[in-house]
Amino acid sequence: MSEELEKVCETLDKLTLDALTLMEEQIQLKLSLENAMVAGESNLAKTRYILGQNSVSVLQLPSEDAEMTANVKVVDKSEKYLDCKAVEIQKCGGEDVPNPLKWFGVLVPQNLHNAQKMFTQAINYVVDSVNVQRKLEETCVKLKQLKEYKKELLG
Predict the structure, then answer these.
(1) What InterPro entries does UniProt report for this protein, alphabetically (predicted)?
(2) What stretch of H or E contains 54?
(3) Extended beta strands in the chain, E state
(4) Which of 13, 32, 79, 153 is buried deepest, with most CB atoms within 10 A?
(5) pLDDT tens digit string along 70-117?
(6) 50 and 111 in contact (C-beta within 8 Å)?
């Protein structure tokens, strides 16, 4: 009985360390997401300053009647959940999807390209964050179950 209790305690220790590591990774991803969003917004502001406030505004967006297609979509991969890959990004539409930067003209400033890259990176951080969050939740469930089992062994 004590041998089984030792195994449970070792597993609890390992899972606790895993949970702390996942929490640290989640914090780093959220900080990276925040930095990417701030950089993207800053680049948009610089572009608006360079081109003028009316050149980068809602007026350049397609009308409500226009057909819009996403470049990427986030897909839940439940069958891969055991591989710890819960969510992933898939490309949509192939080469047919127009580049949204062309809404603002042919020669757009580099800042607008940088903003697009930063917002694309932000999507990747969000997906990674969701995956880490799911791993963390799974680890917490395992911890709770093992703690209950340990109580049964002791009680």
Answers:
(1) Vma22/CCDC115
(2) none
(3) 72-76, 87-91
(4) 32
(5) 778 888 876 555 555 578 887 776 667 778 888 888 888 999 999 999
(6) yes
Is 142 a domain residue? yes
- Print burial letters for 12-46: b (CB count within 10 Å at least 16), e (below 16): beebeebbeebeebbeebeebbeebbebbeebbeb
Domains held by the chain: number: 1
Our measurement of the distance from residue 31's CA atom to the centroid of its chain's CA atoms, rounded to an integer in Å, reads 11
10 assigned to some structural domain: yes
Instruction: Evaluate whether residue 42 is within a structural domain.
Output: yes
Both tokens of 152, joined, read 């049964």
**The pTM of the whole model exceeds 0.70:** yes
- Contact assessment for residue 90 and residue 71, using Cβ atoms and an 8 Å cutoff: no
What gap in Å lies between CA 101 and CA 70, rounded to an integer? 14
How confident is the model over 11-57, as pLDDT tens digits?
Answer: 999 999 999 999 999 999 999 999 999 999 999 999 989 888 777 77
- Asked if residue 61 is part of any domain, the answer here is no
